[in-house]
Amino acid sequence: MKRQYAGTDPLAGDFYTRQFEKDRGEHTLVVNMGPQHPSTHGVLRIVIEIDGEYILRADPVLGYLHRMQEKMGEVQTWGQYIPNMGRVDYGHPLAWNWAYVGAVEKLMGIQVPERAEYIRVITCELNRLTSHLLWWGAYILDLGAFTPIMYSFDDREMLLDILQRPTASRLTYGYFRVGGVRKDLDDRCIEMIKAFIPRFRSRLPMYKDLVTDNIILRKRVEDIGIIDRDMCRRYGCSGPVLRGAGEPYDLRRCEPYSIYDRFDFEIPTEETACSAGRYLVRMAEMEQSLRIIEQAVEGLAHAEGGHIMPKAPKPSMKPPKGEAYFAVEGARGKVGVYAVSEGKKVPYRIKLRSPSYSNLHAFAEAAQGTLLADAVATLGSLDLIIPEIDR
Amino acid sequence: MSAFRQNVIQPIIDLWSLIVGLKVTGKCFSQKLITVHYPRETIEDEDLDTYGGHVELVGKPKDPATPKCISCMMCVTNCPSRCLKVVKAKAPKLTAEQQEALAEAKARGEKVKKPRAPKTPQKFIYDYSLCSLCATCIENCPVHSLRFSHTMYWATTSREELKLDLLARLRRQARRKPRPAAKES
Questions:
Q1: If I label A374, which of A293, A305, A389, B91 is the partner at 20 to 30 A Cα–Cα?
Q2: B positions 155-184 inside 8 Å of A (CB)
Q3: pLDDT at A8 over 60
Q4: Across the strands, what pairs with B147?
Q5: Candidate from A83, A214, A314 with C-beta closest to B80
Q6: Which of B35, B47, B52 sits opposite A168 (nearest CB)?
Q7: What is the CATH number of the domain that holds A326?
Q8: Minimal CA separation from B113 to chain A, in Å
Q9: pTM of the full predicted structure?
Q10: Three-state SS across chain B?
Q11: Which chain A residue shows the shortest CA-CA distance from B183?
Q12: Does A138 lie in the same domain as A26?
């Protein structure tokens, strides 16, 4: 029987494969990486054309985890939509919480109490640490080393215990409320944070000795997956991907929201624009997050107001007519929420701007001409969270 | 860089990084564990105090078997996942004699009070398979009749088992031991 390729046989492969096969060269192979590939951390599928071990073309296929998060905003009341924000990005849900709540507060013209702002900063930065630790462990796991994830989860476990106290959950937080946060940080929680900071500081050099300086890792990530400044601009990359390309763009410094202008911290950048650059930026960011938390815990002691404003709006609030956009710096980049109100209980439109979506598309270009194994190193260094891409 | 340095010294420096890594793992091997080996070990109860498991009802301080709930339906209206179902209790039916007495009193021109429905709900069904544990019901309860339980190790094989009758659960809890007052606000 004559073998038919998917490009000519209407029954072979799906729509994406058939489209992809149209431009296929001779003596090459089209393979699917995912949607169940372990190194894609979710149901991301990438169609790849390979010549031997080298990638000629790559094309990400999205939509396997599409949950209509934006559409759900149009059928729920303003307050009922907050738990959805914890599910968009399980890595750094508090950034999404903040972006949404911030947009609604902008619409309603609400001034959040100082104490609530401090609590938001502390919990958001702690959450950034958990996100980076999760990425760090999983990335090294992708590259073939199993042990580091055990160490990173030790620290992450302590962070989750801290965050569990105010938020009552461990992964998908729905902690922020319009006008403040749900629950105050208690004394025990502050104690735990204060004990955690020196401990984590002492762990960071250990991470460096164990992984960052390791020659095997360095050979695998250095000069792999170049995403330079120009590419970042074209694709709209943000976060550590952009900072890894040497652009010190961080919303906490560039468009200071909340009380971030009060803290003294640096924006780490790397000029190399490769996977190692992005790796180093995230490792340095963890240290900066610790600095912010330290200052915020000090500031929290004499901050005015309560954890939520008096007479905070109920879930069935009715923001005035208008539109608002609020962006915060998530662990993966610029997290933005655009909300349109018609003066009703239910939003007219919620648009979510997720950083992973933009970052992923740079992969297709960065992976061209690299080895298949290097593509995994590039993909992991982007720190993709698939639910956030599909939304 | 000279060829000697590149081919001899650099590989030795590179290999040294592996030994440094082994030292770290060796050190950590002898340290105490932070996480637990789940099926064999479980975490301390005090660590579970802040954990938000499924929602449960809070009993009245004097009568722990009856919930504080006043069937106002705020939890049902505000729940984003529609996982709560509350059935209000009906007013008690009057017997024929009572009805006659009422009609007579009305005829005499007196103010008549019909017996009211009790505030305690008749049914309080909660579907854990739908719940997103967002605490919206807990916050919006005017009498603080809801709170998170600390149930963590709960696994079932069917969705039906995840439907809880919270009133029955409260009665069971009251029988077992008197619960302390609600900590959640």
A1: A389
A2: none
A3: no
A4: B56
A5: A83
A6: B52
A7: 1.10.645.10
A8: 35
A9: 0.87
A10: CCHHHHHHHHHHHHHHHHHHHHHHHHHHHCCCCCCCCCCCCCCCHHHHCCCCCCEEECECCCCCCCECCCCCCHHHHHCCCCCEEEECCCCCCCCHHHHHHHHHHHHCCCCCCCCCCCCCCCEEEEECCCCCCCCHHHHHCCCCCEEECCCCCCCCCCCHHHEEEHHHHHHHHHHHCCCCCCCCC
A11: A183
A12: no
Task: Supply A288's token pair.
Answer: 């900066």
Closest by CA position to A172, among listed A359, A387, A351: A387
Cβ within 8 Å of residue A67, ≥6 positions away: A87, A387, A390, A391
Asked whether the ipTM of the predicted complex exceeds the cut of 0.90, the reply is no
Q: Which two tokens stand for residue B176?
A: 């077992």
- State which amino acid sits at residue A300: L
8 A C-beta contact, residue A336 and residue A355: no
Tokens representing residue B56 in the block: 């449960």
Chain A residues with beta carbon closer than 8 angstroms to that of B14? 215
Residue A387 inside a domain? The answer is no
**Across the interface, do B135 and A215 touch by the CB < 8 Å criterion?**
no
Token pair, residue B162, equals 């995840």
What distance in Å separates the CA atoms of residue B89 and residue B91, rounded to the nearest whole number? Answer: 7
* A36/A82 same-domain check: no
The better pLDDT of the pair B100, B185 is held by: B100
Q: Residue A385 and residue A360: Cα distance in Å, rounded?
A: 10
Residue B90 pLDDT exceeds 80 = yes
Phi-psi map region of B51: left, alpha, beta (phi>0 left; psi -120 to 50 alpha): beta
**Structure confidence by residue, pLDDT tens digits, A189-245:** 899 999 999 999 988 888 888 888 888 888 888 888 888 899 999 998 998 999 988
CA angle A323, A327, A331 (to 5 degrees): 155
Q: Do B80 and A147 touch (CB under 8 A)?
A: no
Domains contained in chain A, number: 2
Q: What range does the domain containing A49 cover?
A: 15-61
Entry field: residues in chain A: 391
Same domain, A156 and A55: no
A372-381 and A114-142 are packed helices; what angle lies between their axes, rounded to 10 degrees? 170
How far apart CA A110 and CA A50 sit, in angstroms, is 54
Say yes or no: A153 and A253 in one domain: yes
Instruction: Say how many C-beta atoms besides its own lie within 10 A of residue B163's C-beta.
Output: 15
**pLDDT digit string, tens, across residues A158-194:** 898 898 888 888 888 888 988 888 888 888 889 999 9
